[in-house]
Design brief:
The protein is of the alpha+beta class. It folds into three domains: about 160 residues, no CATH class; about 190 residues, Alpha-Beta Complex (Adenine-n6-DNA-methyltransferase TaqI, Chain A, domain 2), CATH 3.90.220.20; about 180 residues, Adenine-n6-DNA-methyltransferase TaqI, Chain A, domain 2 (Alpha-Beta Complex), CATH 3.90.220.20. It is about 40% helix and about 15% strand. The chain has a five-stranded mixed beta sheet. A hairpin with a 2-residue loop joins strand 23 and strand 24. Helix 9 packs parallel to helix 12. It is elongated and about 100 Å long. About 35% of the residues are buried.
Length: about 575
């Protein structure tokens, strides 16, 4: 399969458009994006003309004398070029310099500000017009600062993150700091400058690898100067730049289309799944499910849609709608029979009349309860200092709560009193709930204690909830705590103290939960577990498909780069989009 035939697969693969951009630049600088024309003036003539102009500028004292350039050996040339192209070093076609940072302790070097001063962090945009800092005329006179003219190319030689290797273009005259190299091309024609710029965009990763140093690797001016560039005839440079612009616009359209499709998909998923979760009867559920089933392959074609389906499953579970009608009621609840299915008793002197109204209808044998009604014990954890090296009791922390279960991979230990050990010892079936964290989405999240953490203690920003096992199944309560309605109750009263978000035991005890009879809770948990397994399998299949798409895209790009010229097919490429 060639690139044209596989275009849609490439464009829709993970990071496919980014790979397409890389491919376009690769083909451009190899002479395989547009046709060659034997009537074009060869690059050797352009380089001779540039050499003559550079010698004149040196003689006039406008630029510094450069070091004679050695002939580039065949072994040094990265790849073969078309007829009419030539390899040269950047130093052959440009004057390359750098800048400096005037001493910060001399305020007069920065005030009054007169000239824009570029730092490497400002090379992240294609063009530089405004800068965050300026230098004064005194700094220009007394330091080694140089003012580069408009249309100078600026490359970052070092900087944080992705900065090193970025290239931008000045739209106005400006000086730079020492982390930037200024590239003033001898030939000032626009297409020549744009071709050189796109070449540096193509080799971004390669030039970053040339950096040396420890904590902050950096390039130097010598390495920038010695960069080898494939130079096409000037007329072909113009055709290349025009074609790259055309194809990059196409990539922009593909990205916008992808974002629009993702937004539309998210709206469709939300609409159908929200309707499914809001089903108030078996009949309504069947109708809403039919709508979802009609679009199943379209809806569940990405992991985030499977996540939405799993959330919907939980909502249906706590409404009793996952089970057949005959299995929803189970045996009579052991809770106080005065708490009826679709009424809610105010407690603790609450004055909010809305608390008397059930959030939604539930089966007749179910009860709306306060969380505190089914607790045997609720308590906070230890405030003792914990560390990896302490010889003491294992103490569970927030990082040990993962996806509703306890992980013992990252344990710390603490020295606790005998009373604390007895009071805080965990047993299987306990729930640990986060009461304090910087993230609101983590506050109220819970995990079920198993045999792996029996007799462990727990930290102070967790609370342990021990349930009445005669009426409540821990795994069912864990599901209920994840539902949208309960999460809204948790996040509503959250307070922030010094950037930390908190919920207390009283607020947790007052959470409203739908409680089925115990035997029904078991059936619900089994059903949810089965459906979650199906969701996990679907995610795995989607992940495998995306991996295959990625490998296919890599192979397709590799084939396009290393096989026959694509120049004749770029119009078809645009049409394929």
């Amino acid at each position: 399969m060639n690139l044209i035939d596989g275009f849609q697969q490439l464009a829709t693969a993970p990071d496919g458009v980014a790979r397409l951009r890389e491919l376009i630049l690769s083909l451009a600088v190899q002479g395989r994006l547009v046709p060659q024309d034997s009537r074009d003036e060869p690059a050797t003539t352009l380089l001779q003309r540039v050499r003559h102009e550079k010698d004149s500028l040196i003689a006039e004292g406008k630029i510094k004398r450069d070091t004679p350039v050695a002939l580039i050996a065949d072994a040094e040339k990265p790849y073969d070029l078309p007829v009419g192209w030539e390899w040269c070093s950047l130093d052959q076609i440009a004057a390359v310099g750098t800048g400096t940072t005037p001493p910060r302790d001399n305020r007069d070097y920065y005030f009054p500000p007169s000239t824009r001063w570029v730092t490497s962090g400002e090379t992240g945009q294609p063009f530089i017009e405004n800068t965050a800092q300026h230098v004064s005329d005194l700094a220009l006179r007394e330091t080694s600062l140089r003012v580069y003219p408009a249309h100078t190319l600026i490359i970052a030689m070092y900087g944080q993150g992705k900065t090193r290797g970025q290239i931008s273009e000045l739209l106005v005259p400006a000086a730079t700091n020492q982390a930037c190299a200024g590239i003033v091309l001898i030939n000032e024609e626009t297409y020549h400058r744009r071709y050189v710029k796109l070449f540096f965009e193509k080799i971004y990763d390669e030039i970053r690898e040339q950096a040396a140093g420890g904590a902050q690797p950096n390039l130097n001016v010598g390495k920038v100067k010695s960069t080898l560039i494939p130079i096409p005839p000037l007329a072909e440079q113009a055709r290349i730049v025009a074609k790259v612009d055309e194809l990059m616009r196409l990539c922009d359209e593909l990205e916008n289309r992808g974002r629009l499709e993702a937004e539309q998909h998210a709206r469709l998923t939300a609409t159908l799944f929200d309707a499914l979760a809001a089903s108030e009867s078996s009949h309504a559920l069947a109708e809403n499910w039919a709508r979802v089933a009609a679009h199943f392959d379209l809806l569940l074609d990405r992991p985030e849609a499977v996540d939405a389906l799993e959330r919907t499953i939980l909502e249906l579970a706590v409404r009793g709608l996952l089970l057949p009608v005959g299995e929803r009621n189970g045996t009579t609840s052991l809770l106080d029979e005065t708490t009826t299915a679709n009424s809610f008793e105010q407690a603790d002197g609450a004055t909010d009349d809305s608390l008397n109204v059930a959030p939604y209808d539930i089966p007749l044998s179910w009860s709306w309860i306060r969380f505190g009604e089914i607790m045997r014990d609720l308590r906070y954890g230890t405030s003792a200092k914990c560390d990896y090296e302490i010889e003491g009791i294992p103490v569970l922390r927030i990082p040990n709560l993962k996806n509703g279960r306890i992980s013992t991979e990252d344990l710390k230990f603490g020295v606790l009193t005998t009373q604390e050990v007895a009071r805080l010892a965990l047993v299987p079936g306990d729930l640990l709930l986060v009461r304090s964290n910087g993230s609101a989405t983590l506050v109220g999240s819970a995990a079920l204690v198993g045999e792996e953490s029996r007799d462990f203690a727990f930290a102070g920003y967790l609370m342990r909830i021990r349930l009445r096992e005669d009426v409540a199944l821990p795994t069912y309560i864990l599901l209920a705590l994840e539902t949208e309605g309960v999460r809204a109750q948790i996040e509503g009263p959250i307070r922030t103290t010094s950037g930390v978000k908190n919920i207390n035991s009283t607020e947790v005890s007052r959470l409203r939960l739908p409680l089925p009879p115990l035997d029904t809770q078991y059936r619900i948990v089994d059903q949810v577990d089965n459906l979650r397994c199906l969701c996990a399998d679907l995610r795995e299949r989607l992940s495998t498909r995306q991996t295959c798409q990625t490998h296919f895209a890599e192979a397709l790009v590799g084939q396009a780069v290393f096989t026959a010229p694509l120049a004749a097919g770029t119009d078809d490429l645009a049409a394929a989009a």
